[in-house]
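Feature request disguised as a bug report, sorry. It would help if multi-protein outputs had a clear separator. Right now it looks like this:
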Amino acid sequence: MPAVSSVLVVGGGAAGSAAAILLAGSGVAVEVVEARPGGLDAGSGITLQGNALRVLRDLGVWPAVQGAGFAFDSLGIRAPDPAGTLVAEIPDVRTGGPDLPATLGMHRPVLARILLERAADAGAKVRFGTSLTGLRQDPDGVDVELSDGSSGRYDLVVGADGIHSWTRRAIGIDTEPLGTGMGIWRVYVPRPAEVTRTDLTYGGPCYIAGYCPTGEGSVYAYLVEDAQDRSGLTAAEQVAVVRDLAAAYHGPWDAIRESLTDDTHVNYARFESHLVEGDWHRGRVVLAGDAAHSCPPTIAQGAAQALEDAAVLAELLSGGGAGELDELLRRYAERRRERARQVVDASVQLGRWMLERTPREQADVPGLMRRVSALVAVPA
């Protein structure tokens, strides 16, 4: 018997929608409130490692994800030279198991739509354009107020509302993400035929120039630079900056650059990271995903860690019993914290080596990646 009968999930991203699917499937009455409007059409691409795919398979969405994305099993390294020379092709570890690809890229809004539709099919009620504005809890439940003027009472609230979580602050956890010193430009454009996996270029005007195929006809490309204030740029100026930075990179980058137009949507974000120490809950409100921990995308584990949070939380709640909630939530954080810490630390360390121009013989990137792969190959 589940430890709770009713749950409000705040946030319809990877952690929130996955938790909703699993909890609703175990017989819990679940509602999801998502602040974004129903279209969920903003965003570029997402890279999903094997451990993320393992959870997506358990959620029952792997066929849809596989059909919408682009799977591959290796990583390319290119030189920042006039030819964009491929200098290495490295087999990727299948951290989700031998029956899943090592990596899959897809359009982030498509993943969000697949997960939320699955949550609705599992019985969860999903409301878009709605956010949490107030909560009060007592030993028996949580009373909430929502931005659409409605209110409700639930056995548990799951705060999966992102890196700058309102829920985290509302329950008195003062951990906030800190910048790591890098910023990333992202564009979502037609896929050149020769792009069949992620290729990374280190050096040139950017720390990293990379791309990931997200479907038969699409790719998302990204350029990582020193963090700076880019907020005052117009949309056309943002595209111009991307063109300028990308001019130093060749091979498939030539076609990517040529596909940019003044109307191309550009996303710019600063790398941030944090980890909530101790318990991830206060009373009957618990955090998951980026609300509890975040890392820069240098090893592409953000969504995977969010999905793992949801899987562990739902496993404990679905198999628990009345009167055990506080202990179950404590065990959830204990199971997830150190694994998330190692991923966060590795992601930040990789960026720090680049920022500090650490000599290659001192920056053990292969060793770091092996440790992360070994860690996440074991189910959470």
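(second protein starts here, but nothing in the output says so)
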Amino acid sequence: MTNQHDWHLSLTRPVTPRTPEGCEECLRLGSDWVHLRLCLTCGHVGCCDSSPHKHARAHAGTTGHPIVASHEPGEEWRWCFVHEALV
């Protein structure tokens, strides 16, 4: 793992999903999503890149929070938007 990966991982912490029932922005807009992603820096729940609005990626881009985890039942993986890689 590179130093950059280590730095990005250092931004993760135990979080509580802010909107466990769905994508924060899609819920506000009344929009649909495909899959959900949980920001491991602040607990934002956003929709995946297969969703129309890609709110998880947008959140990472505007906040600098690089790593999300799947917020889907039975899935346990993390993704770094900066490196476009599983971590």
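Even a blank line would do. Unrelated, but nice: The chain has a mean pLDDT of 94.
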